[in-house]
Design a protein that fits this description.
Strand order of the largest sheet: 1-3-2
Order of helices and strands: EHHEEH
CATH superfamily: Winged helix-like DNA-binding domain superfamily/Winged helix DNA-binding domain
CATH topology: Arc Repressor Mutant, subunit A
Number of strands: 3
Shape: globular
CATH architecture: Orthogonal Bundle
C-alpha cells in the first residue's frame, strides 16, 4: 500500500502481492482482519483511520500524510 500511496489497491491485488494467491471466497475477511491489526499499530485513532483508508467495496488506499503526521507515524 505504501508503494502505491494515494492509489486505491483492490482486495485481489493485495492478496496477490502480499500473500501470493488469487482472490477466493473469504479472502476479503482475511484482509480486513490484517488491516484491523495494522490500524491498531499505526493509527492514532484506529476507529477514525487517517493513513490506511478503506474504499468501500473496492480495497484500501494509503493516504499520504503531511510531514508532521509522517513524523508521528515514524516515531510511533
Amino acid at each position: 500500500l505504501v508503494r502505491s500511496a494515494g492509489r486505491v489497491v483492490g482486495y485481489d491485488e493485495l492478496l496477490r502481492e502480499v500473500w501470493g494467491y488469487d482472490y477466493t471466497a473469504g479472502s476479503q475477511e482475511t484482509i480486513k482482519s490484517c488491516v484491523k491489526r495494522l490500524r491498531w499499530k499505526i493509527e492514532p485513532d484506529p476507529a477514525q483511520p487517517r493513513y490506511l483508508v478503506t474504499v468501500r467495496g473496492v480495497g484500501y488506499r494509503w493516504a499520504i500524510p503531511s510531514t508532521s503526521a509522517r513524523f508521528q507515524l515514524e516515531t510511533k
